[in-house]
Design goal:
heterodimer; A: mainly alpha; MetI-like fold; elongated; B: about 280 residues; Rossmann fold; 6-stranded mixed beta sheet; 3-stranded antiparallel beta sheet; 9 helices; about 25% strand; globular
Amino acid sequence: MSEPRGTAQAAVPAAVPIRWSMRFLVVWVILLAVWEGVIRAGLHTGLFLPAPSAIIASLSRLIGDGSLFRHLALTVVRIITGMIGGITAGLVLGLAMGMSRRLRRAVDPVVAALHPIPRLAFFPLLIVVFGVGEMSKLAAVSLGAFFPMLLNTVAGVRGMNPVHLELGRSFGASRRQMFWHVLLPGSLPLMLTGLRLSSNVAFHATIGVEMVGSRTGIGSLLWLSWQTFSIDQLYAALAVIAALGIGQASLIRWITARGAPWLAERPAAT
Amino acid sequence: MGMTIQRLVTNPAGDSNANARSLHVTCEGIGHTFAGDRGKVEALRDVNVSIEANEFVCVVGPSGCGKSTLLRIIAGLEAPTAGHVRFHGPAAEKGAKGGLVVQEHGAFPWLNAVDNVAFGLALEGMPKENRRARALAYLDRVGLSAFARHYPHELSVGMRQRLGIGRAMVVDAPLLLMDEPGAALDAQAPRNMQEELLGSWAADRRTVLFVTHDIDEAVRLADRVIVMSGRPGRLLADIPIPLARPRDFRRDQFQVRGIIEDIWRLLEDPPEGNG
């Protein structure tokens, strides 16, 4: 195939997501059908594997009495609120650290020590500080979202191509113009990576804190299902979490494509 | 592409700004010493160069001779540790502003072709519609109007170079400072790029300082070739190129060969007492 020079990454087939979702659907329909068949044929009567029809029945019960929507809404609000807090803080501090060597040198050791601690491990401390209410949960989610955004923003600013900075300076750009016209767009690709990773962590942290310390949200529904031994409902909750994760990942991909149209779409690693 | 060049060469756009844009550059006793981790490195020593208005000057020399440093000093990106750069003529105020054209990564990857060309206008605060219209006109001059919405990664190396030239022209930069390492190109590309470059320049003459390590390229393009020695970079020779314009690479080939031989001899056996 002969391509014109310099257009190597231009072509991204637009049909990929549609084909992918077709395949997704086909595989799952087959899987569920076989699963259902195995159980109906009496080949497996174990407690841990309810029939898909039972799971769907449980799911429709949850939808019917409105409890699924209530839990889901709270979970989504927690993810989004936590993300806004953590990402804003990470972005602002990341930009400042990227531009100021002095600040970077002062804050780096703190980040290096706190970053490896699993996000949920902060939760007990956050409960002590903020109480058992909503605030401690949001703080935990924010904290989770904060670090990936911070680290990627710093890396984005530090990794700016010096040629682009010099071009800006050669046009006599002021400090303010350098920031808005060169530094910000130049570090945007890594900031978007930060956004993607932050949203993942926020999602995980939200489900985590809901399981540990909440009576509301999908995470708590999951936990409650095991405690009441409603295995059908446990599977239903897992399915909802999976759907939520897929929806969130697609949304972030869409935002990334909108935010940086010059980047060819890269395979999403999660 | 050939068509475009032809048009640019034979039909130079009339430009009433040509005089107002006229700029004459003098480098007086430029010296530059880098203070690195492993002590000091003298990159340039007592370089005196004069570039006349609307002249196309190439600087050649072995790698590490400080030719790119000289260009960066003239561009105002680096302050020389000795001597100074002076701008004379009607456009002295503007000096080197907006004239940097870098081959590698020389286009902003986050802007499409029009917005890359319009970069300087955006800094001047020109409204979006106006600056796009103006940038489009200059995109046309460098033969890229069909690629207005393309991002740099979708363009060839030569096209990106012309994008840089368009970006400098649209803000009426009186001096083009072109840093062309050339090493990243395949064998076929430079000849096309030279033709494209000369086409763009002929359409809209202005003072050009072009840094390259390719002597062949320098002789084909320039009115004058400045030869520099290895570290510390000093001036070895200042050679006028008496070839008629527009240049015809086939017609000029024997004369070009002779001049290249002279420059090689100079580089292999530099005269003493020139520093």
